[in-house]
Amino acid sequence: MNLDIIPLHLGLSHFHTPSVAIEAMQEAVAQHQTFYGPNEGLPELRYALAQRYLEDDGVPIPAEQILITHGTKHALHLYLHSLLQPGDEVVAPAPYWFAFPELVRQSGGKLVPVPANPEEEYRLNVEELRSRITPATKLLLLTNPGNPTGKVYSWAELQQVAALLEEFPNLHLLSDEIYDGLGYKGPLPSFLRFESLRDRVAVVNGFSKSFAMSGWRIGYLIAPFPILEKAVELQQKWISGVSPFLQAGAVEAIRQRHRIWQQFRTELEAKRERVTTVLQKMPKLQFTVPDAGYYVTLQVDRCLRPQDPASPFQLVEEWAAALKDQVGLEVLPATNMGMPGAVRMSFALPDDVLENALLRLQAFVS
Ligand code: PMP
Question: Which intervals hold domain Aminotransferase class I/classII large (predicted)?
Answer without folding.
Answer: 13-360
